[in-house]
Amino acid sequence: MTGTLVLAGTPIGDIADAPPRLATELERADVVAAEDTRRLRGLTRALGVHTQGRVVSYFEGNESARTPELVEALEGGARVLLVTDAGMPSVSDPGYRLVAAAVERDIKVTAVPGPSAVLTALALSGLPVDRFCFEGFLPRKAGERLSRLREVGQERRTLVYFEAPHRLDDTLAAMAEVFGPDRRAAVCRELTKTYEEVKRGPLGELVEWAKDGVRGEITVVVEGAPETGPAELDAEELVRRVRVREEAGERRKEAIAAVAAEAGLPKREVFDAVVAAKNAAGAAPGPGNGKGLI
Fold first, then answer.
1. Dihedrals φ, ψ of 213, to 5°?
2. Is-above-0.85 flag for pTM?
3. Is the torsion defined by CA of 281, 283, 286, 289 positive or negative?
């Protein structure tokens, strides 16, 4: 008989949110794999429980190397409990490799449902919750971040992101650039903790709010793209979309073609909008009136 892998959700802030089954699983597990063993000790003290099984670390740095060891324990009949610092294992946290390896070997995988920053932020955001997608952390480099955002620029589902506080202002600025400053969003900070805060508003306003610095664990929820028809996209919006694509590394010809396809318009109409914007800014069009760009 093989064992069982148990994924256990842990509190994202308030220890009182710990699911009742968590204490039971901590006590009965043969092996407890924890993202941070020090955090695990604090959790068990707060819950008033004692782990009877072996405790091992399981974090990003050793996840690949430690997975075969845990799979071996599971194949030997052990009950392995996986916990992260906060929230559900494998959701932007260690766990996916172990789950995939267990599933591949027909080992039972179950879960202790618990708090989730993704769902909590989504529920508090005030934005549509009927359809959403979780995008995790954005790339740290500006160009890669813009490219990733551009991939979901026309996504109509509500978007949920994790972000580090020291990168929040840059991320919000990039979102305002790609999605537009009027797109609604919510920045959820320190969820379920003493200084919980949910700041809601257009991305342009949130950029200004975040400039002075924001502390704590951050989850950002962004409204999906509106259902717009070609007639609803004015010249200014067409030019903005072309500019976003160019800044992300696309050549102007390809950017214009892509924006035209998105908007359901002829490429010439988008091109004319770009040329008019350049003329209005005092810049001359490209060689041959820019016709080679189309």
1. 100, 140
2. no
3. positive
